[in-house]
Amino acid sequence: MNSSVKMEHHRGVLIVRLTGELDHHAADYVRMDLDEAILRRQVEHLVLSLKDLQFMDSSGLGVILGRYKLIHGKGGKMVICAANPPVKRLLEMSGLLKIMPLYENERAALSNLEVAL
């Protein structure tokens, strides 16, 4: 299965929608795309939407943690939304949900960041 990354940038918030699989085959591609977008644009906060992500492994967790560190280092917040049950379970087991909140949908995530689009 392929993976894709779609991004929207609004008022300092980068909304990233991942589709397909975030595994060792896709991790470097996704990492480079996100880093370029974060560093090139004026990104303060990041919303990671996992609604259409069917599978993720430890490489995907590494991508998420690395982007969290990048955003956090800039004084911003990173939130996750719309994870399906298997991906949510992996996020819980990894401990990532202890440092990043998980919201039901993008609207709730953006509301938490107090950003009106």
UniProtKB/TrEMBL annotation:
Any GO molecular function: antisigma factor binding
GO biological process: sporulation resulting in formation of a cellular spore
Domain STAS: start-end pairs: 3-113
Keyword field: Phosphoprotein, Sporulation
CDD domains according to UniProt: STAS_anti-anti-sigma_factors (cd07043)
PROSITE patterns membership: STAS (PS50801)
Pfam families: STAS (PF01740)
The keyword Phosphoprotein is annotated on this UniProt entry: yes
Family, as annotated: Belongs to the anti-sigma-factor antagonist family.
Function (record text): In the phosphorylated form it could act as an anti-anti-sigma factor that counteracts SpoIIAB and thus releases sigma f from inhibition.
Protein name as annotated: Anti-sigma F factor antagonist
Lineage start: Bacteria, Bacillati, Bacillota, Bacilli, Bacillales
Gene: spoIIAA
